[in-house]
TrEMBL record:
This is Uncharacterized protein. It comes from the Bacteria.
């Protein structure tokens, strides 16, 4: 199986040390919750005209997230891929709300 691209992540929060970690998915709820887990539902959606599914990126795009200095997680960009590498990207500013991990 091909290794998947991780999501982009930038940590601006001085109270959190995530060095050495990669972001692959964001789940709704709390890790201790029982039952089925679901991906966090973003309000922003990738442009279907730019999505290019490939073995290293099953979604056909990757997000970039920033943990702000205040501790908010913000989706800042969708990156799209071309067969020979990184293609276009769309700038966003969507703050995630609620319980997620």
């Amino acid at each position: 199986m091909t290794v998947q691209f991780s999501q982009g992540f930038s940590n601006q929060c001085p109270w959190v040390n995530l060095k050495g970690y990669s972001l692959y998915y964001i789940w709704q709820g709390h890790p201790a919750d029982e039952g089925e887990k679901h991906f966090y539902q973003l309000k922003s959606k990738p442009d279907p005209e730019k999505v290019e599914v490939m073995s290293a990126c099953w979604d056909g795009y990757a997000g970039s997230y920033q943990l702000s200095a205040e501790g908010s997680l913000i989706l800042t960009r969708f990156h799209y891929f071309l067969p020979n590498g990184l293609g276009e990207s769309d700038a966003l500013l969507e703050e995630l709300h609620g319980d997620f991990y």
